[in-house]
Structures are given as C-alpha cells and as structure tokens.
Amino acid sequence: MQTQIPAPPQERMAAVAAVDLVKVYGSGDTAVRALDGVTVGFDRAQFTAIMGPSGSGKSTLMHCLAGLDTATSGQALLGGTDLTRQSDRVLTKVRRERIGFVFQSFNLLPQLTAEQNILLPLELAGRKADRHLFGHLVESLGLTSRLSHRPSELSGGQQQRVAVARALASRPEVVFADEPTGNLDSRSGAEVLLFLRNSVRELGQTVVMVTHDPGAAAYADRVVLLADGRVAGDLDQPSLASVAEALQALAVNR
Ligand SMILES: Nc1ncnc2c1ncn2[C@@H]1O[C@H](COP(=O)(O)OP(=O)(O)OP(=O)(O)O)[C@@H](O)[C@H]1O
C-alpha cells in the first residue's frame, strides 16, 4: 500500500523562499553570476535581515524574490507561487496585491498627501482600506497630524514612516525593505526599525530587509549572510556584536 505524505501545513510553509536560485547578468566573457544557487526560506511573522559585502547579491536576491527581476534558473517562491514562471502582467498584480515595499529613497508620490500615498496601493488594487489597521498604523507611526501634508512638507523620517504605513496597509504577505534607514539619521532610523520589529510581533507581518548596517540588522530575528552570490551564514537572534563578527569573518575569508 502506498503511504500518502501529508502536505506541509500552510503556517509551516515559508512566506518566501529561494530554491537553487541563479541569476546571471550578461553573457559570454562579461557574464556576472550574481546569484549562484541560493536556497533559503523566510518564515512567516519573522523579521529577517539580508547582509553581506558589496556585490554579494543582496539586491539581486530581493529583486528576484519580489518579482522585480527574473532569475536565470531555480525558483523564487511567494507562498506557493513560483515567480520565475509568471508573466509580467501576473508579476505586476503580485507586487501590487501581495507585497509591500519600503525603499531607501521613500518613493512617495509628491503630488499626493500622506494619507493618499498610504492608501494608493489599495486603491490601485480596487480594495477597501481596513480603517482599523489604517488608524493603528497612522497612530503608532506618529502620523496622525501629518496626514494632509505632502511629502515636501515632511521630514525624511516622516516620509519613510508614510512609506512604511503604505507598505503595511494592505496586510501584504511580505514587506521587502531595501536599506530602509539608509537616508535617515540614527534616531529616525531607530523609529522605523522598532516599528518594523513591532509589526512582526504584534501584527504577524513578515519582513525581509536588506541592510549594510549591523546596528539595523540587530533589530531582526535572524540575519542571512551572502557572499559571492551564495548563502554564507545564518544568525538567529543577532546582536550588534555577533553581526559585526560574522561580517568580519566573511571579509577575512574572501
Ligand atoms: N543590471 C546588472 N547588470 C550587470 N551586472 C549586475 C547588474 N546588477 C547587479 N549586477 C552585478 O551583480 C552582482 C550582485 O549585485 P547586487 O547589486 O545584487 O549586490 P549587493 O550585495 O546588493 O551590492 P551592494 O551592497 O553594493 O548594493 C554585482 O557583481 C553587480 O555588479
């Protein structure tokens, strides 16, 4: 008799995963193997930082996992969806409806108010805002009195907090943050990182962040280290000291 192997329960499946992911830019003598067989999973309701030396493939990995770039081979899985097999039309829909983005440069629309910026992805997806979640995000990000302001009337820290609210307002399966504190002073940066960490703890949000800053990575539950397009380390409950030490070891071994 054949034994049926039960499928893994949904909650145990990684929110996002790369399976033997390869990305080659260009061809022939000038080809660059930016990802060289990366296999890694990012659990639900966990805050993971991706770190590694410049050129190690951090942005490429994030872009492939977010459907912003296509891998050469392997799988980029969001829930059960392999993004490497989807059309541009489907990828646009996936990015709009299932992923939240926070970029270093905020990327707010200058002609819209903070509130309009926060609600724009929901509007584009034809979905109604969850007013309770909206209220919670705005209040805990300290934006209540800033909702009618345009980005030019906000500080960098406030603009990034609007971008964070925008990323979370649709309850996406994952928030990808690319150097979210890169343009912020240390206090504003800490506010954004604390909020991201709380959104994982309190809202069960999954967050994957690329950063160069060991201090920022220490807010995460886990740090995945890349070197030369491969996974080169994995730290649970990282501290500033353990992250700095791991990065130092990578630099020495290069
Ligand atoms: N569009 C592209 N065309 C050709 N090569 C590219 C392209 N984008 C990235 N690369 C190369 O792929 C490799 C990985 O780049 P990637 O930007 O993913 O690294 P990174 O770890 O994010 O670097 P950094 O920390 O400097 O931002 C590098 O060698 C880079 O030069």
UniProtKB/TrEMBL annotation:
UniProt keyword annotations, A-Z: ATP-binding, Nucleotide-binding, Transport
Record has ATP-binding as a keyword: yes
Domain of life of the native organism: Bacteria
Coiled coil: none
Gene3D superfamilies: P-loop containing nucleotide triphosphate hydrolases (3.40.50.300)
Pfam family, one: ABC_tran
GO cellular component, one term: membrane protein complex
PROSITE patterns found in the cross-reference section: ABC_TRANSPORTER_1 (PS00211), ABC_TRANSPORTER_2 (PS50893)
Molecular function GO labels: ATP binding; ATP hydrolysis activity; transmembrane transporter activity
ABC transporter domain ranges (all copies): 16-253
Keyword Chloroplast carried by entry: no
Name this polypeptide is given: ABC transporter ATP-binding protein
Organism: Paractinoplanes rishiriensis
